[in-house]
Amino acid sequence: MPIKESSDELNPPVAIPAAEIPRAKRKRTAGDYVALAIATVGVGYFPIAPGTVGSLVGVGLYLAVWGWLYAILETNASRGRLNLLYVFTPQLAVMLLVIFVVTVVGIWAATRVEQASQKKDPSIVVIDEVAGQMIALLSGPFWIHTWWSVLSAFILFRAFDIWKPYPIRRLEALESGLGIMADDVLAGIYALIVNSILISAYLLAYAPR
Description:
The longest helix is centred in the middle third of the chain and has 33 residues, at 85-117. The chain has seven helices and no strands. α1 packs across α3 (85-117), α4 (127-137) packs parallel to α7 (176-205) and α5 (147-163) packs across α7 (176-205). The protein is 65% helix and 0% strand. The protein is mostly helical.
């Protein structure tokens, strides 16, 4: 039976029946290589902690898109003399759309790579860490991403992704790419909730008196 792999996971490997992974019946196509490029995001073959490196890619992608959107929307708001509501609302909507697209494309790519490699949740697939990390970063003060809010989102996501509290581990049993992506998406949601609580507590504790 093929052994389930998972990036940076501390838990013991889980044996998965070979019948659960469809056998590749043809040579790799251009689509397979595109899927591999997406699933690994260029760092999946990193020899040490590829999942953590994938999360760093998620941080970079999130902040790059966030900064680009803020620059455009803030300029338009200034020209129209609009308040910041006209910046943050569409910015959040676009970020959610980007995360959704990354997740859906990641499901497709992870499925193709799993079928080609004949491994359950192969460690080279890190697009799931990218999506999960981007979800966790939504917890930062949306108008000002401080360095510590980004760091705490990163640490919390990695902790939940490796620890896998209930029911994250059960989501791994879902079929193919859906199972690969779902557990990291939920880990990102957990990190989002906890980081939001921490940030709120900090803001309340240090609010001007």
